[in-house]
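ERR on first pass: missing label on line 2. Operator R.T. fixed the label and resubmitted. Corrected input:
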Amino acid sequence: MGRRVFLIGAVAPAAILVWLIVAISRPDAVVVERISWLPALGLDLEFRLDGLGTLMSVLIGGIGVLVFVYAWRYFGDREGLGRFSAFLVVFAASMFGIVVADNLLLLFIFWEATSVMSYLLIGFDDESAAARTGALQALLVTASGGLAMLGGIVLLAQSGGTFTLSDLLAEPPTTNLAMVGLALVLLGAFTKSAQFPFHFWLPGAMSAPTPVSAYLHSATMVKAGIYLVVRLAPVYAGLAMWWRPTLVTVGLLTMLVGGWRALAQYDLKLLLAQGTVSQLGFIMVLVGLGIPEATFAGVAMILAHAVFKAALFMVAGIVDHQAHSRDMRRLDGLAKVMPATFALAVIAVASMAGIPGLLGFVSKEAALESLVHDRLWLVSGGVVLGSVLTVAYGLRFLRGGFSTRPEGTVESPPAHEVTSPRFSFIVAPLALVVFTIVSGLAPGAADGLVGAAAGAVDSEASVYHLAAWHGLGLPLGLSLTAIVLGVVLWRRPLPRLRALTRRAPEATHVYTLTLTGVNRLADRVTSFLQGGSLPVYLGVIMAVTVAAPGVLLIRHWLPIGGLVPAESPVQAVTAALVVLAALATIQARRRLTAVLFLGAVGYGVAVLFVIQGAPDLALTQLLIETLVLTLFVLVLRVLPERFEVIQSRIRRFARIAISVGMGLFAGGFALMAATGRKAGPLAGEYLRRAEPEGGGSNVVNVILTDFRALDTLGEITVLAVVAMGVMALLVERRRPKAVEEPAHIEESEEA
Amino acid sequence: MIHRSFILETLIDLIVRTALVFSMFLLFSGHNAPGGGFVAGLVYAISLILKYVAGGRDEMSEIMPVGAETLLAMGLSLSLLTGLAGWLWGGAFLTSSYVETELPVLGMVKLSSTLPFDIGVFAIVVGMIAALISSFGESETPR
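pass 2 clean. output:
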């Protein structure tokens, strides 16, 4: 199959597009679907697709198809492409889930799924240390944000009385608790959308294969946080005093830091990544304001940015693929070698820089107009400054990637001759660029999508429209100023200021320090809590059991009644044997002897079950006893033959006290549970319902597989995880000793 | 060096054959008679152990055609998918359903959606024990 697997994978995002076309007549249609999941917990699969969801889904489906087609040409035939393609499909599904989920818990599940897929996709080259570090960094940052978000969701839902997003936004809770929840949710959104000071994971994620960067890290996943803010802002910007200042500050800082960093990059993809950080900050400012016109402009920027940035990443990947490098210092004269690719890059950069006639210009004009219209001069200034940086790093990208350099200034140029890419390789960015041009000149279709999306979250936003030409005015003046200043900045890149900012602390360092600090703390705690002595562990567990539930048992003791010594002679004899075997167990000096006597206790109990007429229970007990016995024997081979003789009196006394206490507790508990009933037993209810509802006459089995099936599912999941864990921990033993480890693996582990 | 015993192996072979049939019986009759996926899995797992005792890893793999990891994954997926299938007949997650049909040879058979769920449980139990044996057990094969 090889890389053609991507053409099959493309079916998944294509299905999203087809479904949208079939199911929706207009972009502002609303589709609601509700599937019962765990009604007992009030958790249902609630889906709701509105205009905003439609716009995002178009991006997920449309760019998804293009990314799959692109990946088909991007990869050589190598191992693991099927896995890679599967991850991409799961990602597309999860991302689609985020934008259609109407239940906050459901949204959270999809949200985390995209983080995990991002981790697996960034770390696809698992032999590269940079890829592993980048993947882990991205996961830790976004997942800890996700954790904060989960807390926030619970607080919001507690205050608002529902987990359903649309209901919550219809009647937004404004208690202090809800405000804390809202802030936590924002934290999740900031980490996901790479906002300052969490922006550093996005450049780190650039070790991912380029299709991943184009799809996850510019077009869709990093927009998830923004998506959430778009939904929340129109409601909460007016209700929470701190909302606007926070969002605008964070967004502007992100925009400037990203743009400034982008200007110093030599790696084409790193430049684009920093540029993406910058643009995400810009969009965050717009949608964070919660003003109808700015929301509209922000949503337009989501679309425009996804289109031109995905195209640029694809171009960077083509350069990397053809020239085997994406370091500007090593690239030379590519504009002549691959003119078509160069043309695509120029148009995409022009759209990013806001040159008239392209979608980027149309949406940036809308943004500036809304800011000017609302007289937000400080914000406008910041945005113009950010745009200056955008123009400058856009030019840096074009020149660094494609220009012809003077002889002798190219560092270690590629040894082989660089060839132009095949048409099928550039067809994906070509499609995006064509969309940019068409929507730039005739923004009708784009306007329909954007208008419906903005209208879905803020009904007042639906009156605005995208226009190819807004006429002469202050916004156009600001656009032109940004372009002119950008060219100037590109020619004279302010080396002194650069030297100054280089000394500023970097967020990456804070991350590294935190990580080593947490590791060190965990080491200390672990060595304190887990000394490695099994008797100590068991002692602690039992002592706690006796102390906590044991005391409760005594305090709430119910009178025990109806005890009979034995119901039959057989029962009495068996019970006596069990007791004898138990006594023999504690007298045993050898481990093996003790295990055998313990087995005898178990078999005796199984016989008691048979006498009571519980064949199912007896069978299970017998089998378990046999299994445990065998596994014990396997483990005993590595333990000393005899038990250690305890010399210290205190330790011996402590052990006896704990054991006796535990025995009394277990016995007392069993006695009271069996006789001291307050409520009627459940058995009758189960017996009555087993046959008609569960369709089975073995009540035990019906309970396990039907009435309490969720418990069983949880239990077998635990079993499977434990089994995997044991295998992973003991893998050392299974590895053949004769084969020496290759040395390079050891090294990369260190790095 | 561990030596194999011909008598032990033959005996265990006989027992295991019977035990495997018994295990299948428990698995499929479990909904209406004593048994079920868990117990059937235990019987199967004990057969694994007997095989392991007689001839080590190689012998064991005769009745364990796939690896423990695969079995665990398949079992969990099967149970989960059965749960999801509850949606197909309009119920909630894990809602069960059954049909009674006339099958050739077998006669009237009640097919319940809890059976695949139970088979998943069975696979998990077998996979778990296989994982434990192969982790704790001897890597050397007796001759």
